[in-house]
């Protein structure tokens, strides 16, 4: 049940235009200070996980490893998504509470 709640929140945040996805956009979001929460798929490559783990600890952005690429993509109404950044404080808090 919790699984669906997090994916629903991601979907709502996406519809509101408060998320970015894909490695390049997520990285840019974190580095410019807009990304308030990074979510990386559990089945993403080790290299991707390490890259975002290091970047998030450096920029002090919370990171969560959650679900799989297909589910994250489906929640956003797109294809596979290995990572995404939430750019809204309230959505970020709500998602962190559920994870």
Please give a handful of descriptors for the protein shown:
single chain, 99 residues, alpha+beta, 4-stranded mixed β-sheet, 5 helices, globular
List the helices and strands and how they pair.
Elements: H1 2-15, E1 19-21, H2 23-31, E2 37-40, H3 46-59, E3 63-65, H4 69-75, E4 83-86, H5 89-98
Parallel strand pairs: 2-3
Antiparallel strand pairs: 1-4, 2-4
Helix pairs in contact: 1-4, 1-5, 2-3
GO cellular component, one term: ribosome
Domain Ribosomal protein eL8/eL30/eS12/Gadd45: 6-93
Pfam families: Ribosomal_L7Ae
Beta-strand percentage? 5-15%
The coarse silhouette is globular
Name the structural class: alpha+beta
Number of helices: 5
- Rg from Cα: 12 Å
Largest sheet: 4 strands, mixed
Strand order of the largest sheet: 1-4-2-3
Residue ranges: pLDDT <50 for 5 or more in a row?
A: none
Task: Give the % helix.
Answer: 40-55%
Order of helices and strands: HEHEHEHEH
- The overall pLDDT average reads 95
Measured distance between first and last alpha carbons: 11 Å
Number of strands: 4
């Amino acid at each position: 049940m919790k699984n669906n709640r997090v994916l629903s929140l991601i979907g709502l945040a996406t519809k509101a235009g408060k998320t970015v996805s894909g490695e390049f956009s997520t990285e840019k979001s974190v580095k410019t200070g807009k990304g308030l929460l990074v979510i990386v798929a559990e089945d993403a490559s080790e290299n991707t996980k390490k890259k975002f783990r290091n970047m998030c600890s450096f920029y002090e952005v919370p990171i969560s490893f959650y679900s799989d690429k297909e589910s994250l993509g489906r929640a956003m109404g797109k294809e596979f998504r290995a990572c995404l950044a939430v750019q809204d404080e309230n959505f970020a808090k709500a998602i962190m509470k559920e994870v």
